[in-house]
Amino acid sequence: QLRLVESGGGLVQAGGSHSLSCSASGGTFSDYAMGWFRQAPGKETEFVARIVWDGGMTSYSDSVKGRFTISRDNAKNTLYLQMNNLRPEDTADYLCAAYGDRLYGVITSWGQGTQVTVSS
Predict the structure, then answer these.
(1) Which residues of the chain have pLDDT under 50?
(2) What is the model's pLDDT at position 112?
(3) What is the pLDDT of residues 79-92, one digit of tens each?
């Protein structure tokens, strides 16, 4: 299983942009599809975006489509999330996750999360 460590969380003003990173170790990063999820206080964990092993296919939740972009650099074992036009409702703990194989499947690893707070 991959070990995942997120970074880049912080405080952002509404309408602004911010990016997150997730560094992977302990396995072959390119063997796994990856995803971003988020959890706001008092709410369930919500899917945000996912990407297959070579970046050739991505999908997004309706709430972030057109504003967020997921990408990966397999040479650097790193997953990214570029967030634009941020809204207060995007405030959450953002977690990266590794799926069971190159084309999604069940999630096998989670990061510890990084907090993003969007002020209005």
Answers:
(1) none
(2) 97
(3) 999 999 999 999 99
- Is residue 79 within 8 A of residue 111, CB to CB? The reply is no
Measured CA to CA in angstroms, residue 83 lies from 92, 102, 105, 107 at distances of: 13, 24, 25, 23
Beta-carbon count within 10 A of 56 CB: 8
Beta bridge partners of 83: 18, 68
The Cα 74–Cα 113 span in angstroms is: 21
Q: How far is CA 11 from CA 19, 41, 56, 77, 83, in A?
A: 12, 16, 31, 26, 13
Helix/strand number for the chain, H first, E second: 0, 11
